[in-house]
Amino acid sequence: MCIAVSLVSVVGYTANLLTDGHLPPRSVSAPSVALATGVLALLTCGLRRARRLLIMICCGFTVLSVDRLVHSAPMDHAAMGFLLAACAYAVPAWPEMKVVLSRGRASAMVERQEHHAGLLAGELHDEVLQLLALTQRRLDAARALDDPGALRAAMEDASRTLDEQAGTLRRIIATVSPAAVQGMGLAESVTSLARQVADENGLVVDVDVQGDRPHACTGDNGVNLAVYRVAQEALTNVVKHADARHITLALTCRDDGISLTVTDDGRGLGPNPPRATEGYGMQGMRWRCEAYGGTFSARTAGAAGAVVRAVFPLRNCRKTRAS
Predict the structure, then answer these.
(1) Contacts for 114-120: CB closer than 8 Å, 24+ residues apart
(2) Both 168 and 213 in a single domain?
């Protein structure tokens, strides 16, 4: 937020200065830059060069803010001195400034990783660990009875439980690292995912694949995985929250981009849900799209149901990967 306020205020101040007019931003732009850079200087713990640079900018725009009222030539010179010193000091301070600029995205990535790690730990604890502990207690109880028949029945039950938990572990592993994305094209892997969701939850999932390259979509496995994850999370949200019976998944693959649209006939998202109330699943889908230069939207479709749409422009994806 501080970086955004600083950039907008600097642009407003520069535009006013070049036009030599009295635009409204000029009266608030200099104090805004001073306040935002001052707050950033307080937050940049351990980055001495970045802090010094921000302090210079803050001092320069603070003097400009005061000069707006008193119109003193020495104060103009002082402000110019602070800003010129900041320009000269920006070269050695730039590596640390890049760290400041990237902290927001890095913290968002860590937050998403911690969230997914928590989900994985919860599934392992609630499904696998609990049933294995129950199976062990049943075997111990049957062994204590010294009854071959009871022990044989307990062993058969344990064998069935182990088979079920092996399937659960395979599902969790596929969720963490979907091999289908590497082994098949994006269209095939998304179709397979939709078929699995339909079979496991008794839903009707229609898949519509269009485009001039439906089998490969793109050579970038990172983009393929991002599209697959968005489809996976969208279908999971429908199963958990929408109370829907029919889902339509549309995948369009072209040279200039990939678009994914998931529509259901459930209860919808409510009237214009704000971003602040989005859950981790919705935020994760939005973050994956924005990380590759794409766009994400989620809205209620008519009287009922919801529409989730993600667009990945491949030119932006290639630029992101190169940088």
Answers:
(1) 115/280, 115/284, 116/284, 120/172, 120/175, 120/176
(2) no
